[in-house]
Write a sequence for this structure.
């Protein structure tokens, strides 16, 4: 056995030397509760040296020591075991006999405490090291997966881009199919009552069709309806937008000629195909022009390019 001395209260303890062969261990003093480290080369002495210090091999004092040596030895043992309780008085002989047993009992109890402290301190760093290793492993796996996905996307980009473009085109077509595509603002709609040389009265309704999409337009057909004072329908006529005759034409031309001009589908609207505002005109001759009290205009048909 090896004897270890507490650096706080100078108490001496007995410990198995096998615990000190590889590395220092931590132990707690049972006298002053101080936790300290002790290694194989920290000034420990063997059990036989400790027996010579306390002056007994089999529990009794050597007869070769003098009375003065016994008193000094008793004082040393008393200091190593800790200060006596207040008011307690013991004779030198009692100290010599009792103190070695007390020290041995304290040494036996400290052996377990020393092992527990060493085990706790050695296990905690191992636990933290294990947790860090697991965390590093998880981060490494995530980075590898992200890099792999990035490489796959880079390789497949030529095939993925057309798919995205196709989806965008389908979405825009879906929006286009839902509409609305046109509007006729009320503030742009006007009417004019003229006198025609052959038909008598002629009612000319003019306005602007506002296109709500940028898609090129081939033609758009407008329908106008005339109602009397009782809100009964008198007549409805269709006309293609983009054709606006002058007011003199409505006065000089026959009704049939003007009707043919306004109802002929244009081959293309030219610059108006991409314009947001497309003008239109619808003409009513005879009774509808004379008895008409109100009218209504809407887009009847259209064709894209």
């Amino acid at each position: 056995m090896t004897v270890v001395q507490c650096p706080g209260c100078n108490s001496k303890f007995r410990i198995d030397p096998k615990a000190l062969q590889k590395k220092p261990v931590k132990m707690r003093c049972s006298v002053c509760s101080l936790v300290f480290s002790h290694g194989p080369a920290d000034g420990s002495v063997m059990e036989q040296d400790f027996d010579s210090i306390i002056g007994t091999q089999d529990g009794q004092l050597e007869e070769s020591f003098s009375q003065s040596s016994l008193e000094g030895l008793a004082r040393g043992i008393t200091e190593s075991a800790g200060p006596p309780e207040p008011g307690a008085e013991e004779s030198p002989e009692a100290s010599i006999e009792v103190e070695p047993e007390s020290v041995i009992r304290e040494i036996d109890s400290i052996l377990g405490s020393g092992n527990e402290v060493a085990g706790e301190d050695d296990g905690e760093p191992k636990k933290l090291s294990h947790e860090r290793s697991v965390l590093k492993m998880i981060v490494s796996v995530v980075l590898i997966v992200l890099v792999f996905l990035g490489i796959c996307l880079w390789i497949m980009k030529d095939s993925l881009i057309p798919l995205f473009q196709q989806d965008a085109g389908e979405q825009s077509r879906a929006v286009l199919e839902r509409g609305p595509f046109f509007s006729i603002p009320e503030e742009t709609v006007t009417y004019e009552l003229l006198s025609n040389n052959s038909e008598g009265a002629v009612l000319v309704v003019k306005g602007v069709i506002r296109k709500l999409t940028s898609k090129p337009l081939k033609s758009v057909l407008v329908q106008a309806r005339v109602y009397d004072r009782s809100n009964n329908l008198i007549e409805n006529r269709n006309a293609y937008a983009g054709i606006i005759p002058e007011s003199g034409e409505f006065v000089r031309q026959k009704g049939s000629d003007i009707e043919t001009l306004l109802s002929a589908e244009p081959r293309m609207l030219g610059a108006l195909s991409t314009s947001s505002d497309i003008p239109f005109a619808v003409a009513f001759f005879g009774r509808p022009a004379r008895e008409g009290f109100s009218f209504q205009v809407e887009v009847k048909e259209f064709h894209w390019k």
